[in-house]
Amino acid sequence: MVVPFSPAAQRLLVGFVGIGNMGAAMATRLLGAGYRLIVCDKNEEACSRLASAGAKVAPTPAALASTPGLSALISMLPSSEHVKAAYLGSDGILTVEPGQLHPHLLVDCSTIDPITSQEVAAAAEDTWLHPHAAEAHDGQRHPMMIDAPVSGGVPGAQAGSLTFMCGGPEAAVDAARPLLEAMGKRVIHCGGNGTGQTAKLCNNLVLGVSMAAVSEGLALGKRLGLDPVLLSSVLNTSSARCWSSDTYNPAPGVMDGVPSSRGYRGGFASRLMAKDLGLVKTAAEHCGAPVPLTEEAQRLYEQVDPSLDFSAIYKQVYKA
Q: What GO terms in the biological process aspect are recorded for it (predicted)?
């Protein structure tokens, strides 16, 4: 994997909390771009892999956030509860000793509910930076924070082609842009804190429903005697074409390099898709929006092995 080196990134120290499939690929891009990296995760094996690539390891989010010279901190965590624990828990980023927080920029790339994003951003506004960090950033007294969930999956993280949907102050998004562009191709400012999460949830609503629809169509075609490779070529040159058919096809043997070609291992776990659709339902209830397809899709993904990629709905729900 070739990552363009950025002279501007050289010597900047960045923290990364949460190095699962997505986080590890994103952190590797930062290393390749020239950033110095310090990581934190409960998975010691994941930390060891990045340490062998040149990263340092912190035992807790609080210890990481207290590291002198840390310029920015990125998090990529599975759920709202994990984000709250990482930022607001007893060993959390924003619960360090007063005046001991070093990163002036906090970027949460997790997919969580917008209310939690707003809650954590408000806590950041009440947290004081270390005097040296404040001096280094034109007297900034409190960290800037954005929510920046991503689209593109593990392949996009590995290729550096992610899209970041950002919520927060424009100045904070501008400050985060060099970091985000080292990991992706598009940075979209959606509005205030929480709007990045809203955009991501709407995206995953469409993704979850479209993957179920593509799987249903391919499975039906196979039972009626059509080769999934042939049917996929029809879909991809017709009005049913979508990312789930032409980039992340769920039928084994249609595409190389996607989870369906390796037993549905890796990628975006079905439990996370079910979780995200649950967040959509909660947000929809909050504003009174009907989401019947979301409700049905969540029910279907809850029938899939939670450790497998969400495209395994093709095999486990549609029995293809």
A: L-valine catabolic process
